[in-house]
Design goal:
Phosphatase 2c, domain 1, 6-stranded antiparallel sheet, 4-stranded antiparallel sheet, about 25% strand
């Protein structure tokens, strides 16, 4: 409802269950370039290097390699023009392999697990606010109005090296995974998200409702969301 340009970019593979969400930052054009470059680089790398029957070790090697490759692409591109200088992007990758979900994460876009009517955030926000909350410098109430509440501490493409978080989860039939940029998570409480997912018989309608609700609450940023429902039968 506010931004006149979309710096988010997302991807869902038609070949296998790979999903990517990125939220770019930088100048008017740079954020879009960063997020699109990251998504295209990650999907290409995983497509070329993916092996079947993954385990935690080779899944992290694959997804970490994709993250580092994308970081080098975005960082190199940021050096080519003053318009792109300092650009970067958040990054979330979700890759399913039978009953396992592997997640690679940088920044403050989020990955949630919805199971048994409970919503849990899988990813950890790489933000100044989260660091201040963890060390007890500020309270949850103070965090809501802190002047630096949107400052992220880690992004893909801003430096020549990258540190990422990697997670491995065992999935259960009926689990839902929500991937989203902060245009959604900053506009909705977890209770509001959970209420939508509770009645999510149609995933497309549920995502539309999440987007509409975020816009109703102000729509202060670009909104991107991917909702995935895990089925044991389809993964066999």
């Amino acid at each position: 409802m506010v931004r006149d340009a979309n710096q988010d970019y997302c991807f869902a593979s038609e070949k296998y269950p790979l999903f990517i969400v990125c939220d770019g930052m930088g100048g008017h054009a740079a954020g879009d370039v960063a997020s699109r470059s990251a998504v295209e680089s990650i999907s290409r790398y995983i497509d070329l290097n993916r092996k079947f029957d993954l385990d935690d070790k080779n899944a992290e090697s694959l997804m970490g390699g994709a993250c580092k490759y994308a970081n080098s692409i975005v960082y190199s591109r940021s050096q080519t023009s003053s318009e792109y200088n300092g650009m970067g992007t958040t990054m979330d990758i979700c890759l399913f392999d039978f009953e396992k979900l592997y997640v690679c994460h940088v920044g403050d876009s989020r990955v949630y697990l919805y199971r048994d009517n409970t919503l849990n955030q899988i990813s950890c926000d790489h933000t100044l606010i989260n660091e201040l909350l963890k060390n007890g410098t500020i309270t949850e109430e103070e965090a809501k109005t802190h002047p630096n509440r949107h400052m992220i501490t880690r992004a893909l493409g801003t430096e020549d090296s990258i540190k990422y978080d990697f997670y491995s989860l065992d999935m259960a039939d009926g689990d839902m995974i929500l991937m989203c940029t902060d245009g959604l998570s900053n506009m909705l409480t977890e209770d509001e998200i959970k209420r939508v997912l509770l009645s999510a018989d149609d995933l497309r309608k549920a995502v539309t409702r999440l987007r509409d609700k975020a816009n109703e609450n102000g729509g202060a940023d670009n909104i991107t969301a991917i909702l995935i429902k895990y089925s044991e039968e389809e993964m066999r």
